[in-house]
Amino acid sequence: MSDEDRRNYSDEEGEDVGFDDSDDSEEEEEDDEEEMKRIGDGFIVDDDEEEDEEDEEVIRRSKKKRRRKEVVEEDLDEEDLALMEENTGVKIRRPEKFKRLKKRRQEDEDEDEETTGTRHDSLQKIFDDEDDEGLDDRGGYDDEMDQFIDDEEEDEDMDSGGRDRREKAPVKPRPRRAPIEGVSEYVWGEWYEVFGDGEDYAYALGKENGEDMYFEKKPEPRLKDVFEPGVLAERMMTDTDEIIRVKDVPERMQLRPGIQADRSLSDDDIEEEAYWITTQLNENRRGVDQPAFQTENIGAVLKFMSQELMEVPFIETHRRDYFTRVNGQQLTELLSREDLWYIYDLDLKFRSFLERREAIKALIERMKIEDDYLTDSLLKATKLEELTDISEYISLRFSKQIDKTKAFKRPGSGGSYDTTKRGQLSDLIKDFGLSAREFGTNLIEGNKRFFPDDVALLPQEDAEKYVERGFPSADRVVAMAMNMIAQEVAVDPQVRKAIRSKYENTACVTVTPTEKGANVIDELHPYYPFKRLAQKFVRDFHDGQYLQILQAQSEGLVKIEIKLPEEATYLQSVFDYFLSDNYSESSQKWNDLRRKILTSALKDHVFVQMERGLSEKLRSQAEEWVAKKCQISLEEKLNVASYAPRGVTYDRDYSPRVVAISHGAGSSKDAIQVAFLDDKGKYTDHLKLDSLREQKSQKELVDFLDNRRPDVVVVGGFTVMTRRLLEQVEKVVNDLRDLRGDDISVIMTNDEVARLYQNSKRAMEEFPDANPLTRYCISLGRLVQNPMNEYAALGRDLINIRQHPLQHLVGVDRLRELLDRALINIINAVGIDFNAVVDSPYKAHMLQYICGLGPRKAQSLIKNIEADQHNGSLDKRGDLVIRKFLTWNIFMNCCSFLRVHTNFGGDVLDETRIHSEDYNLARKMAADALEIDEEALEEYENASQHVEELMRDDGAEKLNDLLLEDYAHQLEMIQHKPKRMTLETIKVELQHPFKDPRRPFERASPEMIFTMLTGETDQTLKEGFIVPALVTRIRDRNAMCRLDCGIDGILAIQNIADSKIGSISDVLSEGQTLQVKILRLDKEKFFSDLSCKESELRQGDTKLRMLPTDRMFNLFEEEKAMNQIKTNVKKSSFMHRKINHPLFKNMNAEDAVKYLSDKGRGELVIRPSTRGADHLSVTVKLADGLFKHFDILELDKKDDVSLGKTLKIDNAKYSDLDELLVSHIEAILSKTESLMASPKYKENASDLKQSLETQTMAKPGAAVYGFTLNRKYPGYFLLLFKIGAKSSIEEYSIKVAPEHYVLKGPTEKECKDVVSLANSFKEMIMQRSRPKPAAAAAAAAAPSASSTPGGRPHYNSYNGNSNSSSGSNNYGNPHHTPSHPGAYHPHHYQPHPSHQPAQPHHAAMPPMQQPLHPSSSSGAGAPWGSTPWGGAPWTGAPSGGGHMGPPGHMTGPHHGYGGGHNDGRHGGPPGTHDAYGPRSSRAPPTPRRFMPPPGQQPPQPYY
Question: What predicted TM-score, i.e. pTM, was given to this entire model?
Fold first, then answer.
């Protein structure tokens, strides 16, 4: 818009929007014209110091302009002043009230004159030189009161010494301006509120004679002298920040890095840039079935950006006519919003290119370099890389002009390029036939234009004449000449351009693993898809894969090569442009040298640079791709409207009342926090509950909801326990709905912002008294009210939210820029209510993303609005410039995105997205739609009253009858501007003013909730995966398990083993961890069907977990390498180590066995491990022919050879080898010796079996046992036993640990010594041999799944499980808080009827027969006075049916079977009551078993 247009710009009342400066003198006008010229030129001067001085001058003048408008208010009346004089003894000067009022009146008149002026004049006044009159002799400003005192008064107030007597006043009102140079008023106000001005006790520093030292004139301090630079930068209070605030250029344009972003480009520059950008856009769109970009469209957009300083949201909304094809009623946009942002980014690159080119031109002119080839290359350059080539060409070829005293050292050239010696050897260099320039021309044209001239002499003969001139030898002369030619070829712009084009089109990337990578990167590793890439073309990289490749390279796992696919062939073709076609001996000699020159120049220099440049280009493209994906992901989350209750039509002005509830991790220590937010987003009430299982807490929540009447209740949390809270809240809300009839929805939503907010600095500042979980609830409620606002409030913390798996590989600055761009796109598309933003600090976070603004300008705008005397609000958009809140360019950018309500007589068009420059068009369209002529319009009170009638009376549909095509054609004929899309925008806005374009609020999907509460995705958990699971409860027909992520699963009896089993307890035990396969995963119910069949597990899940490999993955090489690894493992050697220990020897396992074969039992040797440099092995001789190899992991190693500071073996850590040997290995050997010293021990299993057979033949009813070594698994023993003569020999396994033995039978039992080991074994056998309960005896007659073919019941073949082992505690998941052990709730998941647990067949059990608490130490968790089957602990039944000990040795009411204990006793949810009251973490008293007196114990039947 021209200055004339701006002067004619009016609001609806006809007031000109501008400023008047008619009183300025001619001299001032001349100065102002110079200032305006400097502003239009973007403050571009040759001298950097001059530019800095101008920036400081802008700040100083703008501050003085504001200070001259301020009025110091009276804080003290006459009585107060008199009282202070009496107390302090100091005379206080009275302010000149009347003269101040007179001055105020004068200022008011000046302001009235200014409002009728022009914007141009106002800008002149902003930088008016007359303000310098306010400067005192220190470079600062006179006292503020001096602005309101006439000269006569000043003379009277000066004492004989020239000192102002008014300076003696000890009491000063709060300063209305900042006393620190370089600080604006509102910045000083912030610091004044925190620190004060330090004058409260100034009188105490006065001299004895009453003089006040404090008010003696001193050099004024600067803000940067008082505060740390980091603090000033964080608060945006530096001088640079102030320049950004006051400059009439969009803030984001000023902050674009490295260039003069606000520099106005000429028409020629824009024409060149339009062609440059169009070419790049069309190259990127190559192969896409879309129309090509047109230069005229790009040029128009660039003019708006570079000359009118308009940002993308403004151009997209109000300048669409310049990139839209109009074909009758069909309107086709040729540039999308994404295209506009791409042009914006390319504009930054072109400006960098332009500035670099101008710098090179200036260097050429300054050095007076005359080279037509250089000038031509500079004109043809189109890329920054080509300008770099030219710079290096100048540095090499014209180094003498640049630095006459120093020869330039070429990086990587292998020698210096001395221009003096080059001149001396110029004749010999010419004899090589072609110059680098001529060779480059041949190469880039692909045609041999220049041919080398052959020399009759051989190269050495030709060089002999230079020996006489002081050179050492002919060979040295030839080598120097070749080196110089190679360097000239390497920096020639045409050579580099031709080879760069070849690389960009045909170069390939090859990735090979290092030795470390070959071992680390397996099939499930994230780097496996590109572990072996075979010549993948550079042009085929379109995603973020290259970032991963670079990351793998930085970790030392892969090597990257960027090469031409047929480099040797290409080199040969390049040679043809440099070699002679003659076949003479001399020609061939010269050709040999020419080949060496090109090989050195290209392979050693040019190719290396091309590879480095391509790698950087691929990295930049990959970063951009990932960052764009992050931007798109964030836009999806932002583009969601506020929650709207069911049955309510969405209104953008409506905000729901929200109650947010959470119990965090859901543990017993976490209370339930409830927060209420009103419809303005304010946190007004809070409730804390212990548990919603209690009626009292439920009633409190009902009362809270009944009082606050929310529209929605949102539930959040961190673990799967949150789903239970959701069900409890739904139950409470349903009860309230039945009671009151309120329709309140209960929902869950994405809580990533709330999790980040709860512990943030901003949260602590906003709600210092609230605990983190309450702050989490507040943010959760705000997300439901306005997701866009809550994301915008995160600010810099936004990059901490994961938008893409590769996000961490993107540069922070670029990532933040594109995430901000997502906020800019959505917030400008939606628009904001300006007065609501000013009133709410929370909503003010969105203002900085409005087009044209930024954090500094938004902060300044709000401060100015709040400081204004007009109630701190805005009545109409035009006031933003009329009341000088914004400069013109900023106003033009942002006004249509700021909605201003017409509560105070504003224009109804301010409530639409119609730009102020198009108000007259909107009024004309409304008048035509209502068929109102111009005379009738004059009768309306204001210019937009008829527009209001059109919108209020639903008459906006009449706009559809207008012929906008004809109207647009007329406008284009008159104004020479296209307006078709503008008219369409006006019509839409009049029909639907500020319609919210966001999609309706969506509840969180089951998949999102599952990921949110478990942290699992489809890549980490899905059907078919094999995962570890903890057995939490065993039932008759199934076993309950819990996965690492906290979800429950069920193992049906048919999915436990491939063969038929009688009872689950035969193969599983509670507390056992096992591998399971997920057969079905129900994400909505957080439940899974599992299988642990060996046949299922044997298949594995590698193929399911594997990421798809790249299409250029070299599978043949991978298989070959894997086969080689397997071969090497068989022949594996070890790395020799230097460890100072008498037992260490450098030998492999085979040698260690040979070494110990003739040693005694218990001898050992420490040796290197074949597992790697961070492992050691200890080989121990356990018996003749039996050796145990212990693996030791070394941690905290300095290098591969030295010993680690920490040694880990079997989950135990030690600080040195001696401690490990004594505390671990020798402890195991001691336990081994103790067991081998037992009379029951036999060296060989065959001898032990023969002994057992002999004993049972002698005593057929006896049960006998013994120990022997497990030679299949060294370090283990076998416990062999035989019950009766007719039974077969069975075996249990015994593991030897440093502190105990582990007996592995039906269950695992830790035993501290051999005696307890034998007793534990006897107890297992006795429990197994108990007779069946009487209630089950009748059922045993019929065969069942729990019976053997002979009718003998399996152990634990009862309906349920007696053990009550504790479930997992934070099992494998830092956020997992498990419920009470085995607490499985049927209402969460209803299994197939075949999986249903048997129902309890007793209504209630006596207290003494209730199940024990899981932490009870009573044997196997059995009730007091009974075995797990209800029988006496000292009774049992051998296979022959007879008792092993006499029954009846039990006292109390629990002898025999005390009533069918069923699994139902464990089926209640946590918190229900058992025999010890409510279930909690406190264990009940441990019951004691009855022990018969000595002499009455039953005899042991073991031999």
Answer: 0.66
